[in-house]
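Protein modeling request. Please complete all fields; requests missing the sequence field cannot be processed.
Requester role: graduate student
Desired output: 3D structure, C-alpha cell encoding
Chains: 1
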Amino acid sequence: MINNINNVINEILIKYNLTQKQLSQKVYMSQRQLIRIKKGESRPGNKFITGLKNAFPEIDLNELIENIK
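Delivered output (69 residues):
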C-alpha cells in the first residue's frame, strides 16, 4: 500500500504542479498528516479521499480507491 499511495500523491503533485503544502491545503488536512499518509505511517481515510475528489473532480474515485488499497 505504501508505494501505491505514495505514487498516487506524487502523480497528483506532478500533474497539478503542487507542493505537498499546497496539496494538503486543497484537501483540508495538515501537511504533516499528508506526509504521514505518503510515508505509509497513516492510512488514508475518508477525509483524504473526499478531499482529493472535491479538489480534483476529474480524478476517477474508483481508480483512486483501488490504488490506495
